[in-house]
Design a protein that fits this description.
The protein is of the alpha/beta class. It has ten helices and nine strands. Strands 2-3-1-4-5-6 form a six-stranded mixed beta sheet, sandwiched between helices. A three-stranded antiparallel beta sheet has the order 7-8-9, with no helix packed on it. Helix 8 crosses helix 9. The longest helix is centred in the last third of the chain and has 109 residues. The termini are far apart. It binds guanosine-5'-triphosphate and magnesium ion. The site of guanosine-5'-triphosphate (GTP) has 15 residues, from helix 3.
């Protein structure tokens, strides 16, 4: 019998019994609280919105502190994600808070890819958690959870409508994270315009099928307040860390020549509503929804992509072992196929190289033969030339000897004639 069936039978067949005295398991909720307080809590907020919309100021105002957030540069080639983590303490409760910023969002001329790095970042955090879950030795109890629990989407207070960048980004994010849309710098928009702007934004979100986070109404202790607050979305907020004395109290406010905007005055803006909903009432629900809804969807898609299913084609529970075996065989088959392909490719390449080498060898032989013949021809020509030169030299030598002979004969006869003439002359005198 499957483990799930056994568990169902155990709970279905449970009998109600009354206790005859105090046992003590009514302290379970306290034990849970103590354990949670001891472990501390973590909460990760993603701020998405165009540069300079007051994201850092709002975070400082919400948590009553000063996070080190330098203004972002406006000349980035793309959007990049910057995450800062802090530890905050309130009474005995420790909160590990991470504030993640989409730096450079909306700064580019082509904004088509703006959402990509945000989606990638969210998926990377889900993947890290999934990898931890799939480990043999898991340490989930002290795992630093970096999954995004809420995305505060800052809308520019234009008073007109949502920009396409806002709609595209929120649509891409809505299945991955709890989105709370907020109208930033709401002090720059009049009361009447603000009401119309809120209605316009909500109708645009609905008509484009963008799912934003709804404050839960299933828990009766918060159902009423959450129900009311759902109707106030998107919250129109003002941020300021500057404190001004109003009456005899110091209040966070923004001062203008024509008056003062009090951040925590509900007639001036929805800052208190946001703080109430985000931190004081629904922080745990946001964490839970992240795990139970968004992470679960990521996990399901990822495992299905890897070939895991709950049931086989016959609707029978799918065994992990069988899936593993099937995947392993599939993988081995593919590996063998790849090996065979590579082997054939190798043989083909060797053959190609061999024929190339043979061709080159033949060319070399031909060239050698040609050169050899050329050399023999040249040699023969030179030998012929040498022979004719030798003949010429011999003929020349013969001519030279004959000429010398003639010359000596001529000289001999010349001297005899001179002697004869000398004799005749002497005789004459
Ligand atoms: P980057 O990090 O550079 O994207 O900016 P940011 O969105 O963090 O804005 P930041 O908080 O640095 O504020 C930018 C400017 O807007 C500062 O001069 C703030 O004083 C001002 N500012 C912040 N919140 C508000 C607001 O609610 N209303 C008005 N009018 N100005 C605000
Ligand atoms: Mg900032």
């Amino acid at each position: 019998m499957a483990a799930a069936d056994v568990a169902r039978q155990m709970t279905e067949g449970a009998r109600n019994l009354s206790l005859s005295g105090h046992v003590g398991f009514d302290s379970m909720p306290d034990q849970l609280v103590n354990k949670s307080v001891c472990q501390g809590f973590c909460f990760n907020i993603l701020c998405v919105g165009e540069t300079g919309l007051g994201k850092s100021t709002l975070m400082d105002t919400l948590f009553n502190t000063r996070f080190e957030g330098d203004p972002a540069a406006h000349n980035q080639p793309g959007v990049h994600i910057k995450s800062n983590s802090y530890e905050l303490q309130e009474s005995s409760v420790c909160l590990k808070l991470s504030i993640i910023n989409s730096v450079g969002f909306g700064d580019q001329i082509n904004k088509e890819e703006s959402y990509k790095s945000i989606v990638e970042f969210i998926d990377t955090q889900f993947e890290a958690y999934l990898q931890e879950e799939l480990k043999i030795k898991r340490t989930l109890h002290n795992y630093h959870d970096s999954r995004i629990h809420v995305c505060l989407y800052f809308i520019a207070p234009t008073g007109h409508s949502l920009k396409s960048l806002d709609l595209v980004t929120m649509k891409k994010l809505d299945s991955k994270v709890n989105i709370i849309p907020i109208i930033a710098k709401a002090d720059s928009i009049s009361k009447n315009e603000l009401q119309k702007f809120k209605i316009k934004i909500m109708s645009e979100l609905v008509s484009n099928g963008v799912q934003i986070y709804q404050f839960p109404t299933d828990d009766e202790t918060v159902a009423e307040i959450n129900g009311t607050m759902n109707a106030h979305l998107p919250f129109a907020v003002v941020g300021s860390t500057e404190e001004i004395k109003i009456g005899n109290k110091m209040m966070k406010a923004r001062q203008y020549p024509w008056g003062t905007v009090q951040v925590e005055n509900e007639n001036h803006c929805d800052f208190v509503k946001l703080r109430e909903m985000l931190i004081r009432v629904n922080m745990e629900d946001l964490r839970e929804q992240t795990h139970a809804r968004h992470y679960e969807l990521y996990r399901r898609c990822k495992l299905e992509e890897m070939g895991f299913k709950d049931t086989d084609p016959d609707n029978k529970p799918f065994s992990l072992q069988e899936t593993y075996e099937a995947k392993r065989n599939e993988f081995l088959g593919e590996l063998q196929k790849k090996e065979e392909e590579m082997r054939q490719m190798f043989v083909m390449r060797v053959k190609e190289k061999e024929s190339e080498l043979k061709e080159a060898e033949k060319e070399l032989h031909d060239k050698f033969d040609r050169l050899k013949k050329l050399h023999q021809d040249e040699k023969k020509k030179l030998e012929d030339k040498k022979k004719s030169l030798d003949d010429e030299i011999n003929a020349f030598k013969q001519r030279k000897t004959a000429a010398e002979l003639l010359q000596s004969q001529a000289q001999q006869s010349g001297s005899q004639q001179t002697l004869k003439r000398e004799k005749e002359r002497k005789n004459f005198f």
